[in-house]
Amino acid sequence: MSHAAAFPAPARATAAVAARATDLSKVYGQGETQVVALDQVSVEFGRGRFTAIMGPSGSGKSTLMHCMAGLDSISSGSALIGDTELTGLNDKKLTQLRRDKIGFIFQAFNLLPTLTALENITLPMDIAGRKADRDWLDRIVSTVGLSGRLKHRPAQLSGGQQQRVAVARALASQPEIIFADEPTGNLDSRSGAEVLGFLRNSVRAMQQTVVMVTHDPVAAAYADRVIFLADGRIVEELYEPTADAVLDRMRLFDAKNRTS
Ligand SMILES: Nc1ncnc2c1ncn2[C@@H]1O[C@H](COP(=O)(O)OP(=O)(O)OP(=O)(O)O)[C@@H](O)[C@H]1O
After folding, report:
1. Ligand 1 centre from 232 Cα, in Å?
2. Which among 130, 189, 193 is positioned nearest to 164, based on CA atoms?
3. I need a surface site. Which of 2, 108, 128, 198 has the fewest CB within 10 A?
């Protein structure tokens, strides 16, 4: 009997996928003020892959990320993190899932000002009552280039360094998936490149799964794959993107929008 036959297809498919949306819809409001923010979106985020989500303002990028991360409820369809279906989880279970399986990186670094860099990095694990794996932590801290800065407080760090602390914090617990919302939006291009390079490294060297919302074609080019949203639907995908290829697609969508 072949190995393929020994492992049923759904189990193998699940193992390679860190998160999945199936016919996911999100509707805000009712009646005349109703907005369909996501319209039956189906997408898989492969484990150990770096995916960028792009699209015009209002196309549903943040909504997709928030629904997948259990930060917002979904109207219909399903959203899975690993094998866990988010719909039906109560608030306590959702909080646990976010804490244990998901890492977050936001545009505003969201560090606690009174804690040192190291304390910020280990905070989520401290709250969860989990001990950070020392070797893993050392590896993250040295890869992210913060070894000499661990006792500094956020105000004593540059924007790029602060965001690298936030990236290290997201990586510390080796989450199933990291969601990054415009992680370089507040950074100059050099600091942004450092943060993105580090995120890409964490995918290559540590098999981390990263999903990142961005408006920036240069940032998107760090990803393995770019998904384009328009009006709450996935309209295009690009693998191994270059900034130029991403820019071309964006221009194409703009032109289509102007003529439709
Ligand atoms: N809480 C809410 N209540 C009502 N409508 C909302 C809410 N949040 C988002 N929307 C609407 O849903 C649609 C998708 O919004 P979303 O924030 O996901 O877009 P986006 O692609 O992330 O935009 P941007 O690039 O501007 O951040 C928009 O039309 C928005 O106005």
Report:
1. 9
2. 193
3. 2
Residue 58 CB–ligand 1 contact under 6 Å: yes
Fold of 47-60+100-259: Rossmann fold (3.40.50)
DSSP assignments along 49-86, one per residue: -EEEEE-STTSSHHHHHHHHTTSS--SEEEEEETTEE-
Q: What ipTM describes this predicted complex?
A: 0.97
CA dist 189 to 107, 168, 169, Å? 14, 20, 22
pTM equals: 0.89
C-alpha–C-alpha distance, residues 252 and 173, integer Å: 40
Provide the residue ranges of all domains of the chain, joining segments of one domain with +.
47-60+100-259
For the segment 78-129, what is each residue's pLDDT rounded down to a tens digit?
999 999 999 989 999 999 999 889 999 988 888 999 999 999 999 988 888 8
Q: Closest Cα to atom 16, ligand 1: which residue?
A: 60
Three-class SS of residue 171? Answer: helix
The number of the ligand 1 atom at minimal distance from the alpha carbon of 38 is: 14
